[in-house]
């Protein structure tokens, strides 16, 4: 498994099997990664009526309790370009990337913070891997680990995407098929199903 | 016993409290200050008018109470606006068209753009633009209130129907009404079916009208509506305005307007034969729009690429299948439609970016290629020499390819195509910002 460098990234983008659209400037493609910009929706985790995250609430995701549990967890904001929002210390926010991403069968994506933002206390993405054949925006999980609020504006480059070739040592591709994903063709962040297929282990 | 004047003065204080209460919320895309100040000024003016008249002056108190009612309606609408309930990227584009069309000439300002306020409400039938036909005399700017159906937040392709509502706003704009009236009287309504109320009634009640029309008219007859008094029941002025607004919608939004209008109107009236007090039968409007689009060349691009040509043909064939076959529905001649459309287009061309222009084949191919690949269609590409290219794209072209794709979904759903196009309009704004000098 090898990382793609700038020329390989550009080559795959030109071929069209890898999609990261739109890239607003050529320096968004770095030596071994592509910078990702912040999109225009923010889901702020909020302290509401819920006392805790309860996997049991997700066992019937389409029932009232399951829907309420997901919807009440976050406050949703649309943040148009040239507006901003403040990420306070200790807060968690889900934001989409501006870019639409499509990963081909032969690649895996890994999202990380940009070091300049990380030095300001902005932590990005605890779930960093993007599976092959994923299509949609990438959800960034932002947390402020610093002691002062951070002002964030849609369009800012806040994350980076590295891509790794999954071809086997004999050069053949894994034939994985399109995986079943609750986030395929995502247009904005959403709470996921934390109890997916693990219902037997959840009491209550 | 409280007098009417006491009551109205109390209502002014109530309204002032409500206005301040609206600042609890962040409303609209451009914040609240402009709206707050405009409403506050109007309220002060009305309150002063009330306090300056004796409590026995019922005529002037009545005038103030009407102004107060209109203002309270406006303020309550402002409170209901939430940017998360409608597609703000679409609104940003729509605003540019609406501002260009509804900019007024006043004594102090030759180009006074309206304020635009947006909120969402209800479902399919809620698309509207309130134009504030009557404003208090101290009003600084006209406030246009645009309403989107809440249920259609993500269905940007249908939002093109607002081109028709922009037509109403244009008609009520003193700057354009005279010119529009002149165009209509010279070209569209000079002769033929819609020349006079009498001609229109003759056509409605003619022997070759479809049976569904005859059945409705017969039912109306039981309530006393006849050929001679039909336009006392229906509004002749409203019928003519609807026809004008359809044409303005077509000229401002292009093919996506035709598609949105045909889809929405036929969803309410599947046969296209419903007669309304304020609008002629849907079938007439559909036939007239499709003919106008054809005469304007919107359905022919001289496309050389066979794949794109086939996709565009499928889209237009689907729309033309909605055409009512009976010649009774064709109420204008080609010449009438063509002359009217060209005259209004010439007027719109002086108000950029309000006039729609067709995409080039290269643009169409690029956008449709992206959409076919499940990618939001925007002005971005990577050339074979690995250079990144960003370019401006008119949001109406994104809507057009969305509708072309909708005619042959190829594994996607109509909702997904809408969301891809809505996302594209948002992304295109970022591209446009980056391209700013």
What would your notes on this structure say?
The complex is a heterodimer of chains A (204) and B (437). Chain A has helices at 6-15, 64-73, 115-118, and strands at 2-3, 19-21, 34-37, 41-45, 74-78, 85-87, 92-96, 100-102, 107-113, 122-124, 129-130, 135-136, 139-144, 150-152, 157-165. By secondary structure, chain A is mainly beta. In chain A, the strands form 4 sheets. In chain A, strands 1, 3, 9, 11 and 15 form a 5-stranded antiparallel sheet that branches. Chain A has a 5-stranded antiparallel sheet with strand order 5-4-7-13-10. The radius of gyration of chain A is 18 Å and the shape is globular. The N and C termini of chain A lie far apart (43 Å). The mean pLDDT of chain A is 85. By secondary structure, chain B is mostly helical. Chain B has 3 domains: 4-155, no CATH class; 175-349, no CATH class; 361-435, no CATH class. The relative contact order of chain B is 0.09. Chains A and B meet through helix 1 and strand 5 of A and helix 4 and helix 17 of B.
Strand segment tally of chain B: 5
- Beta-strand proportion of chain B: under 5%
User: N- to C-terminal separation of chain A?
Assistant: 43 Å
In helices, the fraction of residues of chain B equals 55-70%
CATH topology of the domain at 1-47 and 72-165 in chain A: Deoxyuridine 5'-Triphosphate Nucleotidohydrolase, Chain A
Percent helix of chain A, as a range, is 10-25%
Give the averaged pLDDT of chain A, no decimals: 85
Hey, which two chains have the biggest interface? Answer: A-B, 32 and 33 residues
Give the CA-based shape of chain A: globular
Question: Would you count the extended β strands of chain A for me?
Answer: 15
Number of helices, counting only DSSP H or I runs of 4 residues or more of chain A: 3
CATH architecture assignment name of the domain at 1-47 and 72-165 in chain A: Distorted Sandwich
- Supply the helix-strand structural class of chain B: mainly alpha
> Which value, in Å, is the CA radius of gyration of chain A?
18 Å
Biggest β-sheet of chain B: count, sense, barrel?
3 strands, mixed
The string of secondary-structure elements of chain A, in order, is EHEEEHEEEEEHEEEEEE
CA radius of gyration of chain B is 24 Å
Beta-strand share of residues of chain A: 25-35%
Low-confidence stretches of chain B: none
């Amino acid at each position: 498994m090898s990382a793609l460098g700038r020329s390989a990234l550009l080559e795959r983008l030109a071929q069209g099997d890898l999609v990261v659209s739109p890239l607003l400037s050529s320096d968004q493609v770095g030596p071994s990664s592509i910078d990702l910009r912040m999109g225009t929706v923010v889901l702020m985790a909020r302290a509401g009526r819920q006392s805790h995250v309860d996997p049991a609430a997700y066992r019937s995701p389409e029932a009232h309790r399951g829907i309420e549990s997901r919807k009440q967890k976050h406050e949703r904001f649309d943040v148009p370009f040239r507006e901003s929002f403040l990420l306070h210390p200790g807060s968690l926010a889900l934001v989409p990337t501006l870019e639409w991403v499509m990963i081909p069968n032969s690649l895996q994506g890994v999202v990380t913070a940009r070091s300049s933002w990380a030095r300001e206390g902005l932590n990005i993405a605890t779930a960093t891997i993007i599976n092959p054949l994923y299509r949609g925006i990438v959800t960034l999980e932002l947390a402020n680990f610093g002691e002062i609020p951070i002002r964030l504006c849609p369009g800012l480059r806040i994350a980076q995407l590295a891509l790794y070739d999954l071809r086997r040592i004999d050069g053949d591709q894994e034939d994985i098929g399109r995986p079943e994903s609750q986030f395929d063709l995502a247009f904005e962040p959403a709470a996921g199903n934390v109890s997916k297929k693990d219902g037997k282990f959840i009491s209550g | 016993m409280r007098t009417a004047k006491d009551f109205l003065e109390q209502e002014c204080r109530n309204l002032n409290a409500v206005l301040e209460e609206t600042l609890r919320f962040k409303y609209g895309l451009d914040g609240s200050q402009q709206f707050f100040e405009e409403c506050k000024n109007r309220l002060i003016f009305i309150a002063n008018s009330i306090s300056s008249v004796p409590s026995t002056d019922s005529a002037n108190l009545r005038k103030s109470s009407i102004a107060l009612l209109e203002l309270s309606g406006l303020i309550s609408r402002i409170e209901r606006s939430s940017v998360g309930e409608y597609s703000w990227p679409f609104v940003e584009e729509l605003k540019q068209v609406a501002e260009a069309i509804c900019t007024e000439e006043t004594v102090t300002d030759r180009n006074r753009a309206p304020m635009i306020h947006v909120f969402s409400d209800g479902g399919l039938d809620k698309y509207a633009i309130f134009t504030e036909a009557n404003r208090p005399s101290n009003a600084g700017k006209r406030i246009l209130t645009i309403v989107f159906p809440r249920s259609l937040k993500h269905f940007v392709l249908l939002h093109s129907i607002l081109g028709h509502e922009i037509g109403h706003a244009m008609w009520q704009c003193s700057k354009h009404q005279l010119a529009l009236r002149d165009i209509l009287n010279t070209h569209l309504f000079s002769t033929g079916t819609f020349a006079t109320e009498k001609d229109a009634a003759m056509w409605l009640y003619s022997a070759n009208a479809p049976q569904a029309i005859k059945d409705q008219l017969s039912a109306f007859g039981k309530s006393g509506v006849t050929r001679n008094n039909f336009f006392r029941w229906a509004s002749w002025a409203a019928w003519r305005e609807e026809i004008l607004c359809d044409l303005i919608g077509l000229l401002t939004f292009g093919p996506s307007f035709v598609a949105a209008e045909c889809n929405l109107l036929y969803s309410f009236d599947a046969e296209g034969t419903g007669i309304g007090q304020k609008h002629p039968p849907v079938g007439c409007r559909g036939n007239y729009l499709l003919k106008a689009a054809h005469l304007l060349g919107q359905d022919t691009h001289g496309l050389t690429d066979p794949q794109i040509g086939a996709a565009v043909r499928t889209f237009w064939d689907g729309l033309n299948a909605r055409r009512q076959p009976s010649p009774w529905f064709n109420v204008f001649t080609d010449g009438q439609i063509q002359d009217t459309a060209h005259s209004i287009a010439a007027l719109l061309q002086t108000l950029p970016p309000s006039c729609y222009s067709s995409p080039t084949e290269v643009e169409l191919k690029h956008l449709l290629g992206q959409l076919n690949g499940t990618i939001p269609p925007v002005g971005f590409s990577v050339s074979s020499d690995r250079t990144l290219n960003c370019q401006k794209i008119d949001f109406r072209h994104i809507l057009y390819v969305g509708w072309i794709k909708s005619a042959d979904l190829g594994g996607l759903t109509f909702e997904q195509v809408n969301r891809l196009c809505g996302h594209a309009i948002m992304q295109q704004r970022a591209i446009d910002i980056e391209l700013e000098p």
